[in-house]
Amino acid sequence: QTRAFNMVIRIRLALHGCKNRPFYHIVVANRKWKRDGKHFEQVGSYDPMPNERKEKLVALKLDRIKYWLAVGVQPTTPVAKLLGLGGILPVHPRSYLEAKRHREAKQKELEDTVQSKAEPAPTEV
Description:
The protein is an alpha+beta fold. It has helices spanning about 1-10, 60-70, 75-85, 95-120, and strands at about 10-20, 20-30, 40-45, 55-60, 75.
């Protein structure tokens, strides 16, 4: 009976905040309940908007998250990525792909700026 119970419960993000300023609570909730509705427990928070130091802030209650994971509750993909970056779970494969894409984009941007500076300006005749 506990196995069927745990398949319905997820650790997921609940949206709080206002328009153009999202803020998420990391909650343990039934997957059939509304995203921002009732939940069993809040186990953390996540602010995806970078602060003045370009940091995205995450606060986690590690003991409670470990308890829920030990009981068999599964995190959703966004929460699994956060927990992987926090060292609670193995790093999610999608995190590696996103980091690679960001590195390649930065490299291409850098090459384009270097190339544009190296080209001489056209002269008028």
